[in-house]
Design brief:
The complex is a heterodimer of chains A (166) and B (209). Chain A is an all-alpha fold. Chain A is 87% helix and 0% strand. Classes of the chains: A mainly alpha (166), B mainly alpha (209).
């Protein structure tokens, strides 16, 4: 026996785990500081585990298998849609860059248009109202066409949903 | 507002193939898994629960993640004991990742121990007055148990649990906790001394004495 080890330590731990002590081993444990510490620590921890095992209710094996499959499918779906998401993000970035580019390229024209709009607005409420009203009249046909297209789109969408449910 | 992603038919088919492939991802068949799970689940849960600071929700989550990762890994042919060690190794690593992310402290033990866990009889009190089986004594004893574990470092608890509860060899412990086999003996010796000192300091002695 040395300070760290005793040749009977494994037997003592086994006895402590099972709670069955041979008389000779019990006497040895009482005298040996290594085995005494090992027995005390083992009993303390084994008792904790016993209380856990008596109380814990783990999910069934079938549920855990199903859950693992679900997690695997989710991970696979994420991997499969990663390129699509990437392309979408790149398209968004390209659109934003293009918009910034057009703003820079056509800045003089845009500034002139904004100045005209501002002048119209400053020239009086009535003038502004007339300007906007005329614009609305000009674009009324466009609004009607858009509304018609929206209604047709809604009808087609409703039909597709109905057909899928059927 | 929910975002709806446009997806082409080809992309749907690609996704379907990926999902079909995912079902066949596991190396282990269901029957083998069921046998292995029934043998190890409660042991793993108890380990994760005690090492994670008596946190039942954390133990549930980590157990689920441990089995999932275990099933995803392509392991060579091995016996059930080695598979169990591998599972415990995954659980130990997940616990460490959890602490590293600072999600919660590893040792909120005293309150949890005194709130829910019964005390058995393996460790007995070393004084006349404490042989009484009253509720108050049980609560005190539970708090003592909680405090003893609270004083131990997570690594010390892992070593002691694996050696004394799971009965793992030094080599197996080294594989599970990711240390060299040679250093396990010394670390285990120190941890055991520390725990025994703490238990004796609270008047607890081994049943063998």
């Amino acid at each position: 026996m040395n300070l760290q080890q005793c040749e009977k330590e494994a037997l003592v731990i086994d006895a402590a785990r099972r709670g069955e002590w041979a008389e000779g081993l019990r006497a040895h444990t009482a005298d040996c500081p290594v085995c005494s510490d090992a027995a005390l620590a083992a009993q303390f921890l084994v008792e904790m585990q016993e209380s856990d095992l008596a109380e814990v209710k783990v999910p069934s094996a079938g549920w855990m298998w199903w859950r693992a499959q679900l997690m695997a499918k989710r991970a696979a779906a994420e991997r499969a849609t990663q390129p699509i998401t990437l392309v979408e993000q790149m398209a968004g970035a390209c659109a934003a860059l293009s918009l910034i580019g057009v703003l820079i390229w056509q800045w003089h024209a845009i500034r002139g248009w904004l100045a005209t709009l501002g002048g119209t607005w400053q020239s009086g409420g009535y003038a502004a109202y007339s300007h906007v009203a005329s614009r609305v009249q000009d674009s009324s046909m466009l609004v009607l066409v858009s509304a018609g297209a929206f209604v047709v789109f809604l009808a087609v969408a409703a039909y597709l949903i109905w057909a899928e449910e059927k | 507002m929910a975002m709806v992603k446009d997806i082409s038919l080809a992309e749907v088919q690609q996704l379907g193939h990926a999902l079909d492939a995912a079902v066949g991802t596991f190396q282990m068949d269901e029957q083998t898994f069921r046998t292995f799970y029934d043998r190890t689940a409660r042991l793993l849960w108890s380990y994760l629960y005690r090492m994670g600071g008596n946190n039942g929700a954390l133990a549930d989550d980590l157990m689920q993640e441990s089995y999932y990762r275990f099933l995803r890994i392509r392991l060579p042919e091995m016996n059930q004991d080695y598979m169990k060690n591998y599972l415990f190794r995954i659980g130990t690593n997940l616990l460490r990742d959890h602490w590293r992310q600072g999600k919660n402290a590893p040792v909120p033990l005293v309150e949890a121990a005194s709130a829910s866990r019964p005390v058995g009889s393996a460790v007995k009190q070393n004084s006349e007055g404490s042989s009484n089986e009253g509720t108050e004594d049980k609560i005190h004893a539970q708090s003592d148990m909680g405090r003893v574990l609270q004083k131990m470092k997570p690594r010390e608890r892992e070593l002691l649990w694996l050696a004394y509860v799971e009965g793992s060899s030094h080599r197996e412990i080294a594989e599970i906790v990711g240390l060299k086999e040679q250093s396990i003996r010394t670390m285990l010796f120190r941890a055991r001394n520390k725990m025994a000192g703490l238990l004796r300091g609270r008047g607890l002695v081994s049943k063998a004495q």
